[in-house]
User: Fold this.
Amino acid sequence: MFLLPPFLTPQVVENSIIATSCINQQPIVKTPSFPHLTSPTDHREKSIIAASCINQQPNVKTLLLLFLLWPCSSAFAQSDSLKDSAVNQNQELSNSVNHKDSLSLAYALKKGSKVSLHLRLYYMTTNNEKELSDYYAYAFGGGLKYQTGVYRGFQFTVGGFFLWNLASSDLTKPDPSTGIYNRYEVGQFDMEDFSKKNNIDRLEDFNLSYRLKKSIVTVGKQNINTPFINPQDGRMRPTGEQGLWLDVQDIPRTRIQAGWLNKISPRGTTRWLDMDQSIGIYSAGLNTDGKKSNYKGNLQSKGVALLGLTYQLKPTWTLQAWEYYTDNIFNSFLLQSDATFKLGSSSALIAGVQYTYQHAIRNGGNDSISKTYFDPKQTSNVLSGRLGFQVKGSRFLFNYTRITADGRFLFPREWGREPMYTFMKRERNEGLGDVNAFSFSFFREWQEKITMELGYGYYDLPGATRVALNKYAMPSYHQLLLDLNYSLDGFLKGLQLEFLYTYKLQAEEITTARLVINKVNMHHLNFIINYRL
Assistant:
């Protein structure tokens, strides 16, 4: 059975929802952005660039001018045309004064600024086989973000988040029968210190941006969303990045994204780490020779350079190419095309294809094979495809991914989740080679308030003993997934509920419980309440 805190009753949940929603709501206006497909399974999350919406109010000088000019224009007007001319002149003068005031620094810092609030209540539990340990974690957190208005193209953003443990298992103790530690719930708090659960805070945004027409350049701590480096927001806090980021959207049908990252704060951590020092915070698995990986703290890299090009061939057909150069460690190249072809007034055909190629740079991060991240003797080739059908508010998708036996597909889990079409929440194919993955997904939307994803996947992996192609000794498995989202409106606008359930079943014979716990034959449940203002 799932482990529930003793106080997690329907009344407590109801009170939690009311407590997080009793805040006056201010409307938030977002400007439309160029469509960008970053992850096939999360509805092709879009990167949004929002300009400050300035609500101009007449100042005292303008009101006095209107008060004086109006009776004069009424008393001496000889015709309707003269009246209209006077009114137009007054309006132009009022707009001129307001425009001049809106360009001031004080206006950008005060009236043109925006403060946003995010509250999150998150319950997670894992139910393993009978003889193995079960876990749960119940956490609450909140964050504030302040964003100035745009002043001569510049905009400053600062924000942070805190969280507390409400109730959870003892995550510092390994399972008695296997010696394996918790995998999922510990990510709610601090992956670097399993005992740290309370008074956790992190500076998440601290950046300066410059906007020119539809383009923007940002320097500092921020959140970027690309196919491989992304928020992977499946715990209390997502991944954040530090560096220089450019987003150009002034070229017709084209989007260019480029940047240099020198630090990162991985999901489930509090510190900002150099890119090379962040690799290995999560489980490091095994080297290609079967020995325990020892690359944590032993890699040398100055940072990561990224370049992404997205071109819109047609309104419903995009092509994108991404280059990730991780200095002195490895290189990844992604090419992807997605299209939707109308079949009728309410139906369409969906198709997508994707190719990823990886290779080591020099010795993959360290001259010693026992301390390197990417084995220089291996390369990685990944081909993924999708074919689907859409009718009204429903989508049916069939997905396939092939990772060849040339080597392991590798990308630090600390930086983001993989973009293959067969990806399903709560498991990855990173660290694997010689893989055949199949999945089916059904998506349904009701009135833009309720969304549902129902999925099944079969993942044929190399045997757990084939360590050269199986970094984490993961057995082949079946996976079921149900993801429900409900966005409330009216009095509770800004409140979003999510229920996520997944079940993984072994698809091959397993002789040891170490290959079972937190991997297969397990139920995993999440209930999340978000409130954004």
The radius of gyration is 26 Å.
